[in-house]
């Protein structure tokens, strides 16, 4: 299987690069375009939002042409078909959102329904949180499906909210996938086929990142769009729920691969609710916006956020290698989350100070 994966890696990279460039005209034909504005979108040209379509198409072709998607014990016999259908629906429905901008509650309903289908028909769900607080295993019971749906919806919104500057969401996705792969290898060793699938998804994101940041040339820039960002979130959630369910990692360590986008999403939603606004409303209070408002370039802001994401990943690896109890990791996560809140407050006050002066 590893030799098969080694052969698929270059094929995936080439196919993804070809589709990233080749599907740009489709975006223009469907009016799947991101136009600049004076509030949150400061790019100079109108950019096709076909990164998500490219990612999904690459995965479909590679998976169909390989034997990666073999049956996985413990999941439904139709698990791969269920994931594929739901991911297709995700891309189509959120591409419509990219074109006509659906209501935020409609987007939430779409993600919730697709997560529910994956839970029921794919049998992908969290069943316990292990010894999260040091008092024994926490069994979810009737809360298994609601908790799993929450994980999918949270990841979807978190990565979508991170899609605000060139290449940020894509690179956070790459870090998330690589961290998940590394944690599983540390905990249980190489395990097929989940890690092979996640490796292919990681490789498929690399050309999309290159197109995001203009490495293919300014005339070939492509954005993810809501469909692509949410697809990355769903892939991350699917992988983390699967490896948690199969005890390939401790459920609590699932925080580390998606720490930065999820923390930023939760803090931002809490801020909006505290100020009497919808948690799904748009503004310029995301972490990357605060950095931009302080005068950092998009490239510098992206690198700073990625450095923070890598720091969380390294912390996850260190805790996994140390084999500390789950409740110790829980304490670390709580402290880290409050530290993240402090960082955001400090950045916010600095932007306010800079605006006044």
**What series of H and E elements makes up the topology?**
HHEEHHHHHHHHHHH
- Which structural class do the helices and strands define? mainly alpha
* Largest sheet composition: 2 strands, antiparallel
Shape: globular
Low-confidence stretches are none
Task: Kindly state the percentage of residues in helix.
Answer: 55-70%
The N- to C-terminal Cα distance equals: 60 Å
Cross-sheet strand order for the largest sheet? 1-2
Strand content: under 5%
Number of domains: 1
Topology:
Elements (H helix, E strand, L loop, with lengths): L1 H21 L1 H6 L3 E2 L12 E2 L2 H14 L14 H22 L3 H19 L21 H18 L6 H21 L5 H19 L12 H21 L13 H16 L12 H7 L4 H25 L3 H31 L1
Antiparallel strand pairs: 1-2
Description of the structure:
The model has no long low-confidence stretch (mean pLDDT 89). This protein has 13 helices and 2 strands; from the N terminus they run H-H-E-E-H-H-H-H-H-H-H-H-H-H-H. The chain has a two-stranded antiparallel sheet. Helices cover 67% and strands 1% of the residues. By secondary structure, the protein is an all-alpha fold. The radius of gyration is 20 Å and the shape is globular.
Quick recap of the structure?
This protein has 357 residues and is mainly α. It is built from 13 helices and 2 strands, in the order ααββααααααααααα.
Name some characteristics of this structure.
357 residues, two-stranded antiparallel sheet, 13 helices, 2 strands
